[in-house]
Amino acid sequence: MDYLKQYKSFVNSYYLSEGVRISIGVTLPAVVMSYFNNLSAGIIVSLGALCVSMPDNAGPIHHRRNAMLVCNAVIFFVALVTGFVSGNEWMLGATIFIFCFVFAMIGVYGSRATSIGLAALLVMVLNIDRQHQGWDIFLNAAYILCGGIWYMLLSLSIYGFRPYKLAQQALGECIQSTADYLRIKASFYEKKDEFTENYTQLLDKQIEVHQKQDLVRELLFKSRDIIRESTSIGRILVMAFLDIIDLFERIITSHQDYHLLNEKFGDTDILEKFRHSILVMANELDAIGIAVKSTKPYSQEANLRSQIAELKEYFENFRDEYRSAENVEAFISLRQILESIEDIAARIYTLENYTTYDKKFIKKQQPKIDYDEFVVHEEIEPKLLVENLTLQSNIFRHSLRLCIATMVGFIVSKFFSFGHSYWILLTIIVIIKPGYSLTKQRNSERLWGTIAGVLIGFAAIYFIKNKTALFVIMMMFMIGSYSFMRIKYLVFVSLMTPYILLLFFLLNPTNFRMVMTDRIIDTIIASTIAFIANIFLFPSWEHEQINEYMVKMIEANLNYFDDVATSFLNKTPTITEYKLSRKNAFVALANLTDAFNRMLSEPKSKQKNARELHQFVVSNHMLTSHIATLSYYVPRYNKNNSQYNFSPVINTIESKLRNTKSLLEDDKKINHIDEEENGWRLFNGKVNSLTELRKKELQSGILESETKKELSNIKPLADQFNFIMNIAMNMEKMNIQFQE
Questions:
Q1: Dihedral angle sign, alpha carbons of residues 298, 299, 302, 306
Q2: HSE-up (13 A, CA, CB side) for residue 92
Q3: pLDDT per residue as tens digits for the range 101-156
Q4: CA 392 to CA 388: how far, in whole Å?
Q5: Using alpha carbons only, how large is the chain's radius of gyration in Å?
Q6: Which of 330, 351, 374 is the endpoint of a domain?
Q7: Which ranges of 127-164 does DSSP label H, i.e. alpha helix?
Q8: DSSP category for residue 572
Q9: How is residue 296 annotated by DSSP?
Q10: Among 387, 380, 402, which residue's Cα sits nearest to residue 98?
Q11: How far apart are CA 364 and CA 351, in angstroms?
Q12: Shared-domain flag, residues 174 and 268
């Protein structure tokens, strides 16, 4: 692992920027108020700042601004209500139940709304043990509101100074994720019999790549200033993102029959040469990502051009030495790989140029794309909330589970002298998530993170006696915890715990040990309640809803294939239609993979047909890859292969995919088109005859001929259609067996 590169990547990431911003926003009010001998008020103001920071996650600035405005109003209201009812346990219990349900239900409006709900519940639980009277209730709520407004102004002012910085950081992260994906692709060129682990890694990484792409898409296509392309920076960011999406597709198109390649060339070093070149390109792409995040022009570290030139020369010498009639088809695959590497390298050179933000690299003419089609618009409609008030809704079941679990935690806290309502409820609220797998993961990470954090915190207190030094260390833990808050929950908890430990110690060193012991016990109690609630209170299992993801996956691949395949029938779709169907296929694959991974973390008894589902997920990844590869040959077909009729194979593939979709929807109607299948066999027969003719030419010593040119043009197309056909047939059979 290159630790220097990891360090540069993290230092320039928006995660660290967010951690520093939140730390300043939360700490400064307390420091300023303590200077005026009013630390207690400063802590309340800091609480408001912390709450409003929650919905201020990466996204278009108008979404962040609106979310922070709403969050300020919500936390002010919640602070007032909690203040009025905190003196009456019955009213407080009812308020906890209602607020937990309502603020969990607003999660139907998306992740930012979920963060607002979490902020509201945080204000509630941190005020239930603080009883105020009269005007103190309004003053407490006002302090919280002031903290929220302060943080909002801080965040918006930072954006005003650097309006493109977040988009640049997100784009850099997206480029680096693409580089990691390319590294995994390189592992397919290692000598091995099975590639199951490679596919698993590839699928997991594709989820991450999709998430990073989706964030950049939101930042660029929903930001009016950028999409108007009023500045060279905005235009270059949009162009770079469109190119990295195309590059990602090009990486996917490099999919080959790796078993055949190992069989034919496993004893030579040609595959290792390919692997090394791909890794060089991945490292180059990684460095470009860091350059984009740091807004510094990229200076090439490795001479990628010479590496590609050497590979091309080596391949030509290798081909002349080893080519024979028996391996002619495998050499066609090697030639495709080399062309893919050259094409990917050329795209990397273009991305390098973008890091300079030089106007001369702005394309004069860009394809007309309706960017609005590529982003999800979440409408805040009351009917959506009403429609989810049913046990069929996962959010509704989560809301019931949360409010019941918090009520149990509230009641339990009243029976133990060490029980602190706010800490137990806070732990339950943070741990319980809509899905079993995420709740289980959060529960485990919360416990282990707390234990690790306590050990770190006590070690700091034991060995360091200077309070100024402890304050500096606390600030470092604070920045670190907020930096990892959205990406590594275990690290977040491990850093947040010593930060809170040091805070309590600096504020009240006398009762510190007793308070910390109580917190650990409270955490164990809350984790136990959350674990039991997660299993027995309206559980939501992935196998109950994964069929929906499977249907959407088939639909997306069918539409993607249709847009690519119709180009071979002289019915070329628009650029927007093609790119949209491609995006939908990638998104559907990421969602299906994510759902399957969540299912694997559930109890064994709930993992229905796990083996078949894994095969289905891998098959769809291969299907998407081969469709992407097929799209690469569209321009070649229009120029060279007009005499071939692809209608039979296209119609047969689409029929097989529709049959699979029907089976998943419990529709037993299966379509068989024997005439089309016969046409597909005739097409393959024609290509096979051409292949045999080329083999005879090679046996006769004929190296160059018209047969070679024609075979080089049609064989890659035929291979991709046959790959897609075989996958479609296997999925149809697989689902017939699954239904039976």
A1: positive
A2: 23
A3: 999 888 888 888 888 998 999 899 888 877 777 788 899 899 999 999 999 999 99
A4: 8
A5: 29
A6: 374
A7: 135-161
A8: P
A9: -
A10: 402
A11: 17
A12: yes
Determine the angle formed by the axes of helices 3-11 and 14-35, rounding to 10 degrees.
60
Of 425, 416, 299, give the one whose Cα is nearest residue 352: 299
Q: Are residues 183 and 157 in the same domain?
A: no
Q: Considering its fold, how many domains does the chain have in total?
A: 3
181 shares a domain with 154: no
What gap in Å lies between CA 226 and CA 228, rounded to an integer? 5
Q: Is 444 contained in some domain?
A: no
Distances (CA, A) of 247 to 165, 244, 341, 367, 519: 23, 5, 11, 16, 50
CB 42 within 8 Å of CB 503: no
Q: Identify which of 567, 541, 543, 552 has the alpha carbon closest to the alpha carbon of residue 650.
A: 567
The band of 510, judged by pLDDT with boundaries at 50, 70 and 90, is low
Cα atoms in the Cβ-side hemisphere of radius 13 Å centred on 524: 7
How many CA atoms, within 13 angstroms, populate the side-chain half-sphere of residue 24? Answer: 12
Diameter over CA atoms, the chain: 102
| Pair (724, 627) in one structural domain | yes
Q: What residue has token string 């409609």?
A: 381
Show which of 161, 193, 211 is a domain's final residue.
161
* Block residue for tokens 């003419």: 365
DSSP class of residue 301?
S
| 623-651 pLDDT per residue, tens | 888 888 888 777 666 544 456 677 888 88
Q: Decide if 417 contacts 126 (C-beta within 8 A).
A: no
Same domain, 587 and 730: yes
pLDDT, residue 676, reads 57
CATH number at residue 677: 1.20.58
Q: Please indicate, yes or no, whether residues 53 and 201 belong to a single structural domain of this protein.
A: no
Rounded to the nearest 10°, the torsion over CA 261, 262, 264, 269 is: 100
Identify whether the C-beta of residue 45 lies closer than 8 Å to the C-beta of residue 106.
no
Q: Which two tokens stand for residue 33?
A: 């108020």
Q: Which tens digit of pLDDT belongs to each residue from 576-616?
A: 777 888 888 888 888 888 888 877 777 777 777 777 888 88
**pLDDT of 370 higher than 60:** no
Neighbours of 415 (CB within 10 A): 7
Integer angstrom CA distances of residue 272 from 188, 191, 198, 319, 617 = 10, 9, 16, 15, 28
Tokens of 384: 């959506």
Which segment of 32-41, 309-318, 430-439, 527-536 scores lowest on mean pLDDT?
430-439
